Amino acid sequence: MRLTSAQHETIIYVPGHSSIAIYQAAIAKQLTRISAMNRAEKKQWETVSSQKKEEQWKRIPSEWRLPVPPPQQTTNLLPLIRQSNILTEQELDITENYDATALAAAIRTRKLKVVDVTRAFCKRAALAHQLTNCLTEIFFHDALDRARELDAHLDAGNPPLGLLHGVPVSLKDTFKVKGYDSSIGIAALCFNPATENSSLVDVLLRAGAILYCKTNVPQTLMALDSHNNVFGRTINPSNTALTPGGSSGGEGALLAMRGSILGVGTDVGGSIRIPSMCNSLYGVKPSWQRVPFAGQEDGQKRGHDKIGVPASAGPMAHSMRDVELFFAAVAEQKPWEHDPDVLLLPWNSVSTSGPAIPKKRKLTIGVVRTDGITTPHPPIANLLDEVATTLAQSDITVVEMDITPLLSQCQSLLNAFFSAEGGNTIFDLLESFNEPLSPWLQSRLRRNPSKDLDQLQELHAKRTVLQKKFLSIWKTQDGEGIDAFICPVAPHPVPPIDTYNTVSYTSSFVLLDFPAGVVPVRRFTSSDITGELDDGPPIGRWDKYNRTLWKNFDRAIYVDSPLCIQIVAPKLQEPKLVHVMSVLDQVLSSRAQIDATAKRSIEAKL
């Protein structure tokens, strides 16, 4: 609180009694004292960070705390969960051997109690956090209270509240949960608990979900790692030298540690798909009017998304059937009655009753190999070849799609939208607590003038023209429909911390509002290290940077990291997208099993 003029010590200059110099010195001394008092009273981000971390620690029961700090290593952290001996055998079984769909069924049939399932995931989330720093808000106590209520509901003979009855669901920190902060790692937003829930939070609660924690994000939500000054850095569970991705990086790490069975992230540039790739998860960014997004905290003024590019909320999961469970559970609650942005779109599963793909026609899948901005590394290009070949051998029509003339225009246009507000609201928040930018952002983010009305109109006009041109890509030259296309998630494998720098393969589909998802295919092997990029000149600065992650680079760091593909469908055709992702996942999994069996047979003969 700054001193007012009424609080200032009065100094009167009386001619003949004091010199001008003495008067000026007194004024200077007074102003120095006032400035020092104001600085002392002004809260600092370091103090807030310390208080938030202390609050976190107190919300983890002492019996769930690891006895010693986790080892500093670059190997898989997942085994440390079992080695802690904190989880019971039943809790290990619940958290490791079920997906969300199986858990929901086990709860409905009373094979499992909601309270046991909830306690298992609360404990595992606590351990995952201690190993990877993936959590922000912790509300285990509230979750267990709700679990007991949901058990009593079923024990009384009542039907489940919804498809997620008793299923623990974790949330990215942007979602508001009444009574808890949504600070998104910014000191100025801490200790200001939400007074109401985000729309999707209410929808999930009506569907019967158990909400028990929120997860870490990068400062400003505009980074591709997950570090902020309040909570610190989230690390990748499978290799602590690699990034867990962002901005839903805490969600990705928690799921990878199986501290969550079903998570919800948000995506405006790749923030669901990038962490899904980095943590070998299934994730979907829907078109923005499919899933409720209202009531999020993103550090911006309300309504800014209406003049920019809207973000989407979507699932991150361990199986494709869990992805579909999420969409079905949300649609069952008629979210269009609670969020004005959501369209009336019931969930019609293509595999059962949906009309999106004629039953007499086999799938037609396109292959988009490059965005025309960055050239994929050899293992990424080879992965697309492998997937395309496998699909063609599985009664799926595969067609090449060269859409680089259009796709290469998307990133620069989206960047213009991202800078529409000039970053001024975020900088105001940071400066109010003397908070510096995270290291990765320091050379990438600065204040700029906000765009005026004419500039915004021009951006939207360009976007509309580009979206209209893209309508033609969903037909082959013969006029046959293309159901979806595959492309890279990124032009490189999962990179080291703070080196993920290219988002055009994901952000383009936010600009176009195409639903897009990630499917894990396999792990990076030592044989993937071979192969070189063309020695010709780079396409541009993004391509030049991308080369630094392959040329004259220790590629061994990529070994055993996940390799994934991205699948993209037409606008608002999420049922088709999920169906295609499920089919491709089954085909690729079957092929992997066949290859593994053949390899074991050869090794046995040798």
Q: What is the CATH superfamily of the largest domain? A: Amidase signature (AS) domain
CATH architectural name of the largest domain: Alpha-Beta Complex
User: At the first level of CATH, what is the class of the largest domain?
Assistant: Alpha Beta
Please tell me what the overall shape is: globular
State the helix count: 19
Give the tally of structural domains. Answer: 2
Strand content: 5-15%
Radius of gyration: 26 Å
Mean of pLDDT: 91
> Taking strands numbered 1, 2, ... along the chain, how are they ordered across the largest sheet?
1-3-2-6-8-7-12-13-11-9-10
Amount of helix? 25-40%
Count of distinct strands: 13
Distance between the termini: 78 Å
Uncertain segments are 1-24, 352-356
Largest sheet: number of strands, sense, barrel closure: 11 strands, mixed
CATH topology of the largest domain: Amidase signature (AS) enzymes
Helix/sheet category: alpha/beta
Short description:
The chain has 606 residues and is an alpha/beta fold. Helices cover 38% and strands 10% of the residues. Helix 8 (199-206) links the parallel strand 2 and strand 3.
Task: Explain what you see.
The active site is at residues 172, 247, 271. Belongs to the amidase family. Its EC number is 3.5.1.4. GO terms for molecular function: amidase activity. It comes from Periconia digitata. The protein has 606 residues and is of the alpha/beta class. It folds into two domains: 5-41; 89-344 and 359-597, Amidase signature (AS) domain (Amidase signature (AS) enzymes), CATH 3.90.1300.10. Helices cover 38% and strands 10% of the residues. It has 19 helices and 13 strands. The chain has helices at residues 20-41, 45-58, 79-83, 89-96, 100-108, 114-132, 140-155, 199-206, 249-256, 273-278, 320-332, 378-392, 404-407, 410-418, 424-432, 453-470, 504-511, 541-547, 574-605; strands at 135-138, 168-172, 210-215, 227-228, 232-233, 262-267, 282-285, 312-317, 364-367, 397-400, 484-487, 516-523, 562-568. It has an eleven-stranded mixed beta sheet with strand order 1-3-2-6-8-7-12-13-11-9-10, with helices on both faces. A two-stranded antiparallel sheet has the order 4-5. Strand 4 (227-228) and strand 5 form a beta hairpin. The longest helix has 32 residues, at 574-605. The protein is globular. It starts with 19 loop residues before the first helix and ends with a helix. The relative contact order is 0.11. Mean pLDDT is 91; it is low at 1-24 and 352-356.
